[in-house]
Backbone:
């Protein structure tokens, strides 16, 4: 028997890390640029500083997207706030800082935007990071607003988020499918509302299986017309893209 699909208040199109590659990822400048292209839902990456502040960064280390060095989670927020997180991208964004998750949440709430927070823990902090993300967003996100979607590749992080914010929707990220449909079982066991897969993994049978389990079907990171159209034809529910300049979020 198929389970009913949960209500899904989010738009189809989601801007990856703010504005894809048009601006330095996970900076407030990127989210503003994505918004200027008409996007109303944004994906970001969140991890914990050494003093327990949630900030936006994808990598475990600082070198790729800042002028800092070393493991990001081993720095205090005061140290992280001093870094340049924009100059690596282009001169126009030099001096952009690493925002806190709280700052981005307030920006989205002030403008009526939707948010997908990927819990991206420093290795060894999976449970603590999930708990912290859930606790922060449960505290500051109004019940009347559309809740943020919390996602992670790490089941332990989703379990942590469920502990502190059981009412916030969750999604399991998957890059390679496990045998025997174990990923669907994992997502269901975590009380997830969605699965977010590498877009190439979806086919009609898998969409039907995921929808039949009462889960929504989302994809990352979709940057080509043909791939986007294939996912739309498969009746998937959400598309995360870097190409905010190519895809109209009104489609």
Residues:
């Amino acid at each position: 028997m198929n389970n009913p699909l949960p209500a899904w208040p989010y738009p189809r199109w989601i801007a990856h890390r703010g504005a894809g590659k048009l601006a330095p990822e996970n900076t407030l400048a990127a989210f503003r640029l994505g918004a200027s292209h008409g996007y109303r839902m944004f994906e970001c990456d969140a991890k914990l500083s050494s003093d327990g502040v949630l900030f936006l960064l994808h990598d475990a280390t600082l070198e790729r997207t800042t002028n800092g060095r070393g493991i990001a989670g081993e720095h205090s927020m005061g140290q992280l706030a001093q870094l340049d997180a924009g100059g690596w991208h282009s001169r126009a964004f030099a001096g952009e800082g690493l925002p806190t998750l709280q700052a981005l949440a307030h920006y989205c709430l002030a403008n009526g935007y939707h948010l997908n927070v990927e819990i991206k823990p420093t290795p060894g902090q999976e449970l603590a990071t999930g708990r912290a993300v859930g606790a922060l967003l449960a505290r500051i996100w109004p019940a009347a607003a559309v809740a943020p979607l919390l996602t992670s590749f790490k089941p332990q992080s989703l379990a942590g988020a469920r502990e502190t914010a059981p009412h916030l929707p969750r999604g399991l990220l998957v890059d390679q499918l496990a045998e025997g449909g174990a990923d669907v079982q994992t997502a269901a066991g975590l009380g997830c509302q969605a699965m977010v897969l590498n877009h190439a993994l979806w086919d009609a049978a898998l969409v039907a299986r995921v929808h039949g389990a009462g889960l929504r079907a989302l994809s990352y990171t979709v940057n080509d017309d043909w791939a986007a159209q294939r996912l739309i034809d498969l009746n998937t529910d959400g598309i995360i893209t870097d190409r905010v300049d190519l895809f109209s979020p009104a489609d």
User: Anything to note?
Assistant: Residues 65 and 85 are 6 Å apart (CA to CA). The mean pLDDT is 97. The helical segments are 28-36, 77-80, 101-111, 126-140, 155-164, 182-189, 204-212, 225-233. The longest strand covers residues 41-48.
